[in-house]
Amino acid sequence: MSEWPMSESPMSESRISQPRLAPVRFRGRGFVVTPRWYGGLAAFFIIIALWQAAGSLGWVSPLFLPSPLAILQALIALTASGELGQHIAASAMRIGVGWALGTSAGLALGLSMGLWGLARSIGISVVSALFPIPKIALLPLLILWLGIGEPSKIATIALGVFFPTTIATYSGVDAVPRTLIRMAQSFDLPFSAIVRKIVVPAALPSILSGFRISASIALLLVVSAEMIGADRGIGAFVLQAGNLMQTDQLLAGVVVLSIFGLIVARLIGFLEARLLAWR
């Protein structure tokens, strides 16, 4: 019987002739979006540079569009005088109290609509009828009921926050997978434990999205309410600066509102990172 030499064995030939397989690139990232912090920063600086150049070169009248440097100087002067701090404190108080009241009521009604049939049938009818009404249009009526002081402005903000919070909470609760609830019921968990451990955590993404919307609405409503009937607040300050054609101070107030919005967005983003870490 003939023997194969070691160098010419069939196994060694198959190893030599077998092509090498290239590694396959992993593509199962699930469309995870990785933010690029430098993108937004670069866009911001480019816009500011073009804006400043347009003002410095005389392309735009400073009366109609003050340069960023002029706005910064106005902000510094208003901060040093203490006037800006008083307006910010007044607006922050109205937003904080109104948003807290509207959010609390919206969470309670939204959870009730998602969990009980009677509350859902009543709540959907009431919310559908009242939600399309512009809440700032109710301010004159609220002034008649509550006076021209703080309660009418806070009530306007609370009404504006209440409806989107209710809708977001109800939608989040209604979208909870029923299989999870049935599984919890099969293990004989009490109703309160199911709501606390399954329903609320599963509805949190929708609820926090509603918080983002309601915070923006609160900011819009506080400015509108202060323009109609207030002597303190960012809205009143912007209106007064516009009437006096002090456009640098007017845009300084707009910058403060923008910073306000960014702070609120950061706070809600922090809540999402802490409460939705399980995702």
Helix-strand layout with pairing:
Elements: H1 10-17, H2 37-56, H3 68-81, H4 83-115, H5 117-130, H6 139-146, H7 150-174, H8 178-186, H9 191-229, H10 234-243, H11 247-275
Helix pairs in contact: 3-11, 4-5, 4-7, 4-9, 4-10, 6-7, 7-9, 8-9, 9-10, 9-11, 10-11
Task: Explain what the structure shows.
The mean pLDDT is 86. With 279 residues, the protein is mostly helical. The chain has a single domain (66-274), classed as MetI-like (MetI-like fold). It has helices spanning 10-17, 37-56, 68-81, 83-115, 117-130, 139-146, 150-174, 178-186, 191-229, 234-243, 247-275. The radius of gyration is 29 Å and the shape is flat. 75% of the residues lie in helices and 0% in strands. It is built from eleven helices and no strands. Helix 4 packs across helix 10.
The proportion of strand residues reads under 5%
What is the third-level CATH name, the topology? MetI-like fold
User: What is the total domain count?
Assistant: 1
Report the strand count: 0
The amount of helix comes to: over 70%
Molecular shape: flat
What gap, in angstroms, lies between the N and C termini?
67 Å
Low-pLDDT stretches: none
- Determine and state the CATH class: Mainly Alpha
Overall SS class: mainly alpha
- Major beta sheet, specifics? none
CATH homologous superfamily, by name? MetI-like
**SSE arrangement, N to C:** HHHHHHHHHHH
Give the mean pLDDT: 86
How many whole angstroms does the radius of gyration measure? Answer: 29 Å
**How many distinct helices?**
11
CATH architectural category: Orthogonal Bundle
